[in-house]
Amino acid sequence: MGTQISIFIQQIINGLKIGSVYALVALGYTMVYGIIKLINFAHGDFIMVGSYVLLYTIPIMVAGGLPAWMAVILAILACSAVGITVEKVAYKPVREKGTKMSALITAIAMSLFLENLAQTLFGASPKSLSTIFNFPNLEVGSTKLNGNTLLTIAIGVAMMIALQLFVKKTKMGKAMRAVSEDGEAAILMGINKNRTISITFAIGSALAAVASLMYCASYPQATPTLGSMLGLKAFIAAVLGGIGIIPGAMLGGIIIGLVESLTKAYIGTLTGGVITSAFSDAIVFGILIIVLIVKPAGILGKNVGEKV
Amino acid sequence: MTVKVPKEKGKAIILNLIGVLILFLILVILNESGALSSYVSGVLMVCGIAIIMASSLNITVGYLGQIALGGCGFMAIGAYTAALITKAMEAGNILVGAGVPNTLRFLIGTIAGGILAAIFGILVGIPALRLRGDYLAIITLGFGEIIRVIIQNLKFAGGKGFSEGQAGQALVGINRLADIYVVFWIVVISVALLYTFIRSRYGRAIIAIRDDDIAAGASGLNTTFYKVLAFTVSAFFAGIAGGIFAHYIGSLNAATFGWLKSTEYVIMVVFGGMGSLTGSILAAIVLSALPELLRSFSEYRMLAYSVALVLVMIFKPTGLLGTYEFSLYRVLNRIFHEKKAGKKQEVK
Amino acid sequence: MAEVILQAKHLGISFGGLKAVDDFNIEIRAGELMGLIGPNGAGKTTVFNLLTGVYTPTEGAFFLCGEKMNGKKTYQVVQAGIARTFQNIRLFKSMTVIENVMVAYGMSMKYKMPGALFRSRTYWREEAEYREKAMELLKIFGLEDKADFVADNLPYGQQRKLEIARALATGMKLLLLDEPAAGMNPTETADLLRCINVIREQFGIAILLIEHDMSLVMKICERIVVIDYGVTIATGLPEEIASNQRVITAYLGADEEEEGA
User: What value does the mean pLDDT of chain C take?
Assistant: First the structure.
C-alpha cells in the first residue's frame, strides 16, 4: 500500500512539473490572445527555438565556467527577438489589412515556417542537450523526489508570481491590461499600442524560453517539432482556464499536466485495458472539446454573446 | 412542363463535357502509348487526391469561411474504411474473380469510406460548428487528432487488419485497385458535384452565412443545418479521397493523417482562392506536382509555402484567384467574338 | 376589422436581473403600419430581437396570427412570417444584389439536394422563376439595373432598400423595420417612404417600424407605441402621442434638458 501511495505522489509531482511548463507556455498564448485576439500558433515553436539556443549555448557557458542554466538568459533574448520579429514582420501587416481569417492563416504559416526553418538549419533528427541542473534527490519517508523536478516546479511558480506582479503593479503591465480590455480607448489614453503589443510578445516569448529550459531539464532533446504538441497542449490549457485570463492559464496548465500524468499512469487499469496510455493525447484533446462545447469561455471566463 | 435550361448554360455544359473528354483522351493516349511511366501516373494520382481534398475543403474554408484543421481525420476514416472493406471482400471472396472488375470493389469501398466520413462529419460538425474562427480551427484539429490516435490504437486497423490486426502498426496488404482512368472520372464527378452544389440554393445559403450569419438567420435560413451540411460535404469527399489514397498507396499509417497534413490542404485552398474551385484545382496540381518536379526543392517545400502564405495573406487575403471561376464557355466565346470582330475589321 | 397579425402579451426579458423590456403589449392588424418609438436605450431593438427569436422572452408571450412564437429560433420565426431589417445594415456583402434576394427566396424553393446536384427540371424552373420574382422586387426599389452589382458596393441608401427587399422575399406577414431612414438624406427618405407605401399596397402586410425621425413617424404611422426604460408609456394615434405628457417628458427630460432625438 505504501508504494501505491508513493507512486501516486510521484505522479502528482510529475503532473505538477509538466503542468508548470504548460502553464508558462499557456501564459504566452493567453497574453497574446488578450491583446490582439489571435491564437499565436507559432508560440509553441518559440519553445523549440529556445531549446536550440540552449543546445548551442550550454557548452559555451560551461566552457566559460558558468552554470549551465545561465544559458537561459541567451534563450530569453533570442526567443524575445523571434517573437517580436514574427509580430512585426507577419502579424502586424496582416492585422492592419486582412480579416481574422487571414490572421489565423498567417499564424499557422509562421508555425510551419519556424519548424521547417529549424529542420533546414539543424536537421530533422533529435539532438541531445547536456545536463542543465544536477540537483540532489529528496527523500520524504519512502517517497523519492527528483530534485530537478522540484526545481522545475519552483521556477514555474516563481515565474508566475513575477508575471502577476508585473501585470498588476507596473505601468507597462497596466498598459497591457488596458489594451486587452479596449485597444481604441487605450490609444486615446495615450498608451502606445504597438509598443505594448511588442512587449507582450517579448514577455510571452521569454516565458516560452524559460519553459524550454524547464522542459529540456527533464527531456534533454531538441527537435524541430518539439514545440508542436507541447504548444497545442499549452493552448488547450489556456482555453481550459479561460483564454485571455492570466490566472486561468496557470490553473489550466496545472490541470492539464495533472490529468495527463494521472491518465498515463492509471487509465489502463481503470478501463481494464480498453483505453491505454497511448490514448493520453486523445484524452487531452477530449478535454478541449468538452470545455469548448460546455463553456467556451473557460473555467474562469465569462460568456459573451454577439450584439445584434 | 417543358424543361427550360437556359441556352447559354446548356452550351456551357456541353462544352465542359467536350473539354473533359479531350483531357481523358489525352490521358488514355499517354497511358496506352506507354509514355506514362508508373512514376508519372503516381504523381497524377496524388494530384487527383489533392484536387478532391482541396476543392471539397474549399466548401468549409472558402465558402463557409471557417478554417477546419481536421480534414485528414476524415480522410483517414475514408481510407481505413475503404481498405478494410475491400480486404474483407477479398477475404470472403465477394465480387472477386474472373468477370468481376476489380474497380467494383474499389468503388464500393471508396463510396462506403465517403459515407462513413460524412457520418463522422455530422457527429463532429454538430458540436464543433457552434464555435467559429480560431476556436473552430482548434476544435477540428482536436477532433482530427483524436480520430488519428483512436485509429492508431485499433487492433483491427493495424498490421494485416481484422483478427490478425496489431494496434500501433501500419495497415498493410491493401490491393492497389485504384485505376488511373477510374480515378480521373471520380475527380471529374466530385468537382462537378461540388460545383453544382455551391451554385444552388444550398451553396447560396452557405455563402450568405459566411457573409453574415445573423442576417442569414433573419432570411429564414437554419444556419446550424447549413453549416453542418457544408462541413459534412467536405468530410464526405475527404473520405472519398482517402479511399483512393488507400488503394493507390497500398498501406496505411495513421500517423500520416496528422494535422500538419490537413494544414497542407488548407494551404492549397488558401493559395488558390477561398471561394474558387478553379483555384483549388490549380493549387492542388501545382503544389502536389512541384515538389516532384523539383526534387531538390522538396526539402524546402514547406519553408517556401509558409513564406508564400504570409505574402499572400498580406497582399491578397482572399487567395490568388479570389472567387474567380474558369469558364470554358466564356473563354471560347471571347476568342470567337474577337475573331469575328477581327474579320469585320479586315473587311473594312 | 382586419385580422390580427401580431399580438404580444406582457412580453418581457431580463438580463441578469435587469429588466430590458417589461410588460410589452401590442396588437398589429393586417395592413397596419405601426410605429415603435422611444429615447435611446429604451429597449426598441430589444423588442425586435424578442419578436424575431434572437432573444427568448423570460415573461409573457407573442403570437403570429394566433400561433405562439415563444422559444422559436430566428429562422423558424422568419419562416412563420416575421421578417426584419437591422439598425446597422446587414447584407451579404460579397454577393450580388439579386443573390441577396435569392437567399431569402431559398426557403420557398422546393428542389432538394439531388435536384441541386444533378440539376433537375425543378432546379432550372425554380431558379429562373425566383430570379424573375427577385427582379420584380428590385424594381419596386429601383434597384433592377443594379442586380448584378456586389451588394457592398451600393451606396448607403440603396443598401437599406436592398435589406428591405430581402426581407420581403421571405414572404412575411409582418415586417419589422429598424430605423430604415437612419443616415439618409431628405430625398432618400422621401423615396423610402414611397417604397414603403408601394409595398403596403402590393403586399398588404403589417409593418412595425422603429424610427428616430419623429416627423417621419408622425407622417406615416397609423398608431404609435412609445417605450422608455423597457416600459410602454403610451399607445395611440400620432396626434394623441404628440400631446401626451409622459412622452414629452421621456423625450425632453423632466428638467427641460433637450435630448437630440
Answer: 90
A254 lies in some domain: yes
Exposed e or buried b for every residue in B160-177, given b needs 16+ CB within 10 A? Answer: ebeeebeeebbbeebbeb
Please tell me if residue A85 touches chain B, with a CB cutoff of 8 Å: no
Q: How confident is the model at residue B131 (pLDDT cuts 50, 70, 90)?
A: confident
Closest CA to B271 of B299, B306, B231, B295: B306
Give a yes or no: residue B288 inside a domain: no
Query: With the CA atoms of C98, C104, C108 and C112 taken in that order, what torsion angle do they form, in degrees rounded to the nearest 10?
Result: 80
Whether the CB-CB separation of C196 and C220 falls below 8 Å is answered with: yes
Taking the CA of residue C97 and the nearest CA in chain B, the distance in Å comes to: 12
Query: Which residue range(s) make up the domain with B148?
Result: 39-258
Mean pLDDT of the residues in chain A: 89
Q: Does any domain span residue A52? A: yes
pTM of the model: 0.92
* Residue B206, in any domain of the structure: yes
Q: Is residue B326 part of a domain?
A: no
Return the C-alpha cell found at A240. 481550459
How many domains is chain B built from?
Answer: 1
Q: Give A289→chain C minimum CA distance, Å.
A: 25
* Residue position matching grid coordinates 432550372: C124
Q: Which CATH number covers residue A165?
A: 1.10.3470
Grid coordinates in use for A264? 498515463
Domains of chain C: 4-92+167-252 (3.40.50.300)
Chain B residue with minimum CA distance to A40? B134
Q: Which three cell numbers stand for residue C41?
A: 436605450
Q: What are phi and psi of C22, to 5 degrees?
A: -135, 130
Chain A residues bordering chain C (beta-carbon distance below 8 Å): 308
The chains found to touch C (3+ Cβ pairs under 8 angstroms) are A, B
User: Could you tell me which of A90, A166, C230, A207 has the C-alpha nearest to residue B314?
Assistant: A90
pLDDT by residue (tens digit) across C58-98?
999 999 999 999 989 999 999 999 999 999 999 999 999 99
Whether residue C112 lies within 8 A of chain B, CB to CB, comes out as no
Task: Judge whether B6 lies within some domain.
Answer: no
Alpha-carbon distance of A192 to B233, in angstroms, equals 46
Q: Is residue A303 part of a domain?
A: no
Give the integer Cα–Cα distance in Å for A86 and B99: 61
Residue of B nearest to C101 (CA): B219
Give the pLDDT confidence of C2-40 residue by residue, as tens digits.
889 999 999 999 987 788 999 999 999 998 999 999 888
